[in-house]
Amino acid sequence: MSPTPQVKRLQPVDVSAQTTKTRILDAAEELFMEHGFEATSLRLITTAAGVNLAAANYHFGSKEELFQAVLTRRLDPMNRQRMDLLESFEAAAGGHTLSCDKILSAMFIPALKLARDKETGGQNFLRLLGRAYADPAPFIRDFLSQQYHEMIARFRTAFAKALPHLPKDELSWRLHFVMGALSYTLAGSDVLKMIAQYQPDEADNDELLLSRLAPFLAAGLMAPATTSGSVHQMFQEAG
Amino acid sequence: MSPTPQVKRLQPVDVSAQTTKTRILDAAEELFMEHGFEATSLRLITTAAGVNLAAANYHFGSKEELFQAVLTRRLDPMNRQRMDLLESFEAAAGGHTLSCDKILSAMFIPALKLARDKETGGQNFLRLLGRAYADPAPFIRDFLSQQYHEMIARFRTAFAKALPHLPKDELSWRLHFVMGALSYTLAGSDVLKMIAQYQPDEADNDELLLSRLAPFLAAGLMAPATTSGSVHQMFQEAG
DNA sequence: AAAGAGTTCAAACGTTTGTTTGAAACTAGC
DNA sequence: GCTAGTTTCAAACAAACGTTTGAACTCTTT
Asked: Which of residues 202-221 of B touch A (CB under 8 A)?
C-alpha cells in the first residue's frame, strides 16, 4: 500500500521518482489555484504534468491527499519561518515588548519571501492558499486549522503583549480580521479589477501589496476597543 | 426555449410556478453555501427542494444561471439599499463631508439588515456571498464584478472626500482590503475556531461581528499614507 | 544475468455529473 | 368541456469523474 521507499540508495539519489512527484505537485499547484479543488480533475493535472493518470493516485493515494501535499510543501516551512522570525525579534528586543508593526512583519515577511521565490512558484501558491481559506470542503478547513493552530497561538500571545489594553476576545476578532484581509488579498489579484483603477504590472506586486496592507492592518489592530453598541446605535438611527 | 411567461394573469397571480422556483432558490442558497458551487449537484438541490430534477433546468436554464439567480435575488436589493443609505447620509449632512465610520455604516447596515431578516434566510446568504468572492470560477467573478461595479464606484468617491489626504491608488487598495475583510469575515463562521478562543453562540452574532469589524476597518482606512519602502526596509533587516 | 522492488502505462471500473426528452398533469380562457 | 399554454415527471443521454487493475518497464542489487 505505502509506496514510501526504504532508505537505501544513499549515493546516487535517484531523483526520477521525485521528478514525477514534483511535476505532479507543480502542475497541481497551478491548476488548483486557477480552478479550485473541485473543478480541477486529476486528468487535467496529470496531462499538464506530462505523466500518466494513475501516477497521481500511486504517489499520493487520493486527490484529497494530493491537495494536502500541495499545501504542506510550502505552508509548513513558511509558518515555521514566521515563528522563528518572531522569536528572533523578541530576542533582539530584550525585555521590551514588540510593536504591532514588528509582529505583523514577522507574519508578512516569510509570505513575501515565498512570493518572491519565483523558482518555487511561490506566487501561485499564495493565491492558492488564500482561496483554500474560503473553501467549504471540510477536509481543507480541518487541515488548515490544524496547520495554523500553533502559529496563530504564538502570534496571539505576542499581540496580547503589544496591545495590553485590548480585551482578549476583541484581540481574537482582530486577529481573525487580519488573517482574513491577508488571505483574501493574496487570493485576489483579479478581484482587484473590481476596485482599483489601474492594474499594477510590476513583478514585485506582492511587496507593494503587503507594504500597503501592513499599515492598514496595524492601524486596525491598534484602534481603541469597541464601544459597546456603537453599530447597534447606528443601526437604530438608519432605521 | 425561454420559459419566461408573458404578462397575462393579472388578478389571481398564480404563485404555484413561483413556489417551485422559490423552493429551488432556497434549497440552492443553503446548499451552495454549505458545499460551494462545484460540489453541489442539481440532484442534491432538487431533492432538498422536493421538486423534480428537470425543474431546475426548466426554470433557470442551467446550473450557472441558477447560481446567479441565487445571488441576484438578495444582492441586488442590498447594494441598492447601500447606495440609497449613503445618499441619505450625504443629504442629511448638508455640505459637510461624511466621516469614514458613517460611510462604512452605509455599507454594513444593509448587510446587517439582510443577515437579521431570518425569514428570508439572509444569514446563509451572506456566507454564500463571502465564499463566492473567493471562488475561482470566471463566471462568478465576472458576475460579481458587474454586480458591484456601481456600488463600489459610488463609495470610492465618498471615501475620497472623507480622506482627501490619501492618494487615489492607496484608497483603491484600502477599499480592496475593506471588501476583503468584510467578505472573508462573513464567509468565515467556522474559520473562527482557528483563532477565537470561544465561539459566540448568540443569534445576533452578525451585529456583534460587524460592530467589531467596523472600528477595525475605520482605523485602517484613516491610517496615514504608506511611507514608501517601509516593508522593504523591514524585509532587508530580517534578511 | 537473474531477481526483485519501484514505477509507469493503457485500459477499464462503477458513479456521478448537467442536461435533454417526450409524455403526462395541470391550469386557465372560451 | 374542449383547447392551448404552462408546468411536472420518470427516464435516459453522453460525458467526465476518482480510482483500480495487471501487465510492461526500469532500475539497483546480488
From this structure: 207, 209-221
